[in-house]
C-alpha cells in the first residue's frame, strides 16, 4: 500500500486533512499549534484511490533534545520510505520562513512532493496561494481540509504518483467468530509518565513513539502493527499495539486538549480486546489506577496489570504482594487479575506480559457448550441452593451463554427480582472459576417468563 505523508509547520491543518482523507475524526484537532506529536497512520480512500495516510507533528526549528526537536525527528522518520509527501501550507497566513526551510529539506529528499495551500476557501487565501509558487514544487493545489474543497485536484496530483489501486480480494462471510491467531488488539493505559510509550518502543525495538521526562507527551491514541515472536513456541503472533494518553484524576484535567486526549484514550479502550494498565513501581498503586481499571472492566475489556520500572523498584517483593492484595480488595468483582512485573528500560517481563495477554483474550472469547454449562449450573444449585425470601423459593431453571467478548450469560427463572446480589456474585465467580474464564469481566442477565395474565 502506498504511504502518503503529511508534512508542514504547526497549525496549518494537517490533522484536519488526515481526518478528511480517512473519513473519520481519528486525529485530535484544536486551534492551538502543536497538538499532534506522534505519527498516526490511517487507511485513506480518495475517489477510489486507496493509500495509507500518515499524520505528523508540526515541523519546528528547535534543539533536537527538546520536545519540539524530538517531534521533528519523528516527522523526518516518517519521510523515510514514503511514496509521496503532501506539503501543507496555510494560504491565509502566506509563506513563512519555516515553510521555506521545510521546502529546502523536501527538495533534498527523493520523495515526490505535492504542495497543498490549505485554508484557501474564499479569496482570503489568494495571496498565499500565489506566494507558494516560490517554493519550487510547481502548481499548488488550492485546498480546504475543513470544507473538502480541492479533493478532485488532489486526486489528479496523486494518481500518477501512486497508480491505480489493487482490487481487494473478497472476504468470506463465513469467517469464524474468533480466530486465536488473529491480530491481538492490545491497548496500554495508565497515569501520565508511567512509561507507556517507552514500553511500546522497547517492544518495537525503535523510537517509534515520542518519549521523554515530561509528563503528558502522548496526546493521540496511536496504533502500531507489529509481530511478536513467542519464545515458548517460536511462533510469530500479530499484535496491534495502542498507545494512549495518560489519565489523571478528572478534577485535575482542566485543559481542553487534555480532555480530548483522555476521551481519545477511552475510545481506544473500546477498540481494544485486552488492556494493559501500566503502574509506576516508584509510586505503587493509587486510587486513580483503580478508577482506570474499573472503567476498563465496565467497558467489558479483558484487563491485566503490569508494574513498570521494576529495575528501580524498592522492596520489590513487598510492592508486588501489596499491589496484588490491593487489587483483590479494590476490584473484588474480578479477583486474580493477571499481574506482571516489567521494565520498559531493560525489557524484563515483556514476553511474559504478551503471553498472558493472548491467554487472557482466549478466555475473553471463550464459548462454553450449553450441555457443559448446565451441568455446572446443576452442581452449583445443589451445592448452594438459592434462598427463599418470605418463605417462597426462587426457582432458577437454566442458563445459556448469549455472547462472547465479553462473555455474557442469561439466567432464566422465576422471582428473579428477589435474587440477592451475593448469590448473583456466587454464580459469576463459579462461572469464572469452574469454566475457564479466569479474571475476565462477565455479564449475567436475569430473565423471567412474561406473565400472560399481566
UniProtKB/TrEMBL annotation:
Amino acids binding GTP 2: 190-197, 243-247, 308-311
Alphabetized UniProt keyword annotations: GTP-binding, Nucleotide-binding, Repeat, Ribosome biogenesis
Superkingdom of the organism of origin: Bacteria
GO molecular function, one term: GTP binding
The keyword Nucleotide-binding belongs to this UniProt entry's keyword annotation: yes
Domain EngA-type G: 2-166, 184-365
Residues at which GTP 1 binds: 8-15, 55-59, 118-121
Database matches in InterPro entries: G_ENGA, GTP-bd, GTPase_Der, KH_dom-like, KH_dom-like_a/b, P-loop_NTPase, Small_GTP-bd
Pfam families named in the record: KH_dom-like, MMR_HSR1
GO biological process: ribosome biogenesis
PANTHER family found in the cross-reference section: GTPASE DER (PTHR43834:SF6)
Function description: GTPase that plays an essential role in the late steps of ribosome biogenesis.
Family statement drawn from the similarity comment of this UniProt entry: Belongs to the TRAFAC class TrmE-Era-EngA-EngB-Septin-like GTPase superfamily. EngA (Der) GTPase family.
Self-association and partners: Associates with the 50S ribosomal subunit.
Alphabetized NCBIfam families for the sequence: GTPase_EngA (TIGR03594), small_GTP (TIGR00231)
Name of the protein: GTPase Der
Gene: der
